[in-house]
Amino acid sequence: MASPWTADEKGFMQRALEVAERGRAKVSPNPLVGCVLVKDGVVIAEGWHDHLGGLHAEQMAIHDAESNGHSPNGAVAYVTLEPCNHFGRTPPCTEALMWAGVKEVVVAHYDPNPTVRGKGIQVLQDAGIEVRQGLLEDEASIQMHPFLHWCQHRRPLVTVKMAVDANGSVDDRSQTPQRFTSDACLDLVHALRKECDAILVGVETVVRDNPQLTVRRVPTERQPLRIIIDPNQRTPTDALLLTDEHETLVMGDDFTSLPALLNLLGDKEIQRLMVEGGPTTVGTFLDQGFVDEFYLIQSKVIHKQPIASNIDARRLISAGLSHTSTESWGDETVQIWTRH
């Protein structure tokens, strides 16, 4: 069956997806969104959602067009997400598109957020603007995965990161706590942290490692919320997580149920949670079926007094995950497992 989309149309939407990436790690809990305005087959403007409270992609593209002497009247807007029709941190994008005189809107993915859910498309159609939907929808779905997951489940997408030695050990009891992966690998771990809204560990990790759990090795405009699972109030009062300027949430015995915790985080609009805890914490998430992504980082180092991670392919598969790719992060090999 022939595609309903031309090569040019696919190219315009691909460009919208590319400019949307400029908002990564800056717009959550809003999704990444890009917009391209096309007139007479030529791109006249581009826009993206750059930061919370800033212009949405459609609004930025319209402003970009006018700033460069181009009228958006009669243009076609290629937008990666259905335009909003409600007042939030900014006015509705549907009003901006109608005011600008756009004649057609091509949408990659509908917005499942209860505040939109087709209302944006309907408003545009009622105003006489042609709307077509579904161009590069799969690509947009991947780009907005945490947002779409949150809209569907009202809880965060859970990403686990665990580093092990050559034999699957997470720590060496013969040494004081220390990192055993390369600097290049650590840079990429911090880049992954940057994309998450919160980072979680168990109290054992805090007691042994005294981590900061901040984004330090890559530029960032925000820090994730830190969460400690501590049902018996064992977190040291001088722990870095409690004494620096960044926010930490300590979950005691009133919130040790993972469903309750994830629901609470969902209510806080936490869309992507990174779990960096030890075998007990990670195992609990796995056994209860709450892991959506697993980054298993394996070093060539061999621990003298190993602590087993108890993580292998069989356990990940039984938790509903599939091995999707293997990457090199510095000197380490990283297996990426995901839930489909």
Rg, rounded, reads: 23 Å
Give the class from helix and strand content and strand pairing: alpha/beta
Proportion of helical residues? 25-40%
Q: Please mark out the parts with pLDDT under 50 across 5 or more consecutive residues, or reply none.
A: none
Task: Please give the number of β-strands.
Answer: 15
What general outline do the C-alpha atoms trace?
Answer: elongated
What are the key terms here?
five-stranded mixed beta sheet; elongated; 340 residues; 15 strands; eight-stranded mixed beta sheet
Task: Describe what is shown at a glance.
The chain has twelve helices and 15 strands. With 340 residues, the protein is α/β, with parallel strands linked by helices.
Walkthrough of the structure:
This protein is an alpha/beta fold and 340 residues long. Helices cover 31% and strands 24% of the residues. The protein has helices at 7-20, 57-67, 93-100, 119-126, 137-143, 145-153, 183-194, 203-209, 240-243, 258-267, 279-287, 313-318, and strands spanning 34-39, 42-48, 76-81, 104-109, 130-133, 157-164, 169-172, 198-202, 225-229, 248-251, 272-275, 293-298, 306-308, 322-329, 332-338. Helix 2 packs parallel to helix 3 (93-100) and helix 3 runs parallel beside helix 4 (119-126). The protein is elongated. The two termini are 26 Å apart.
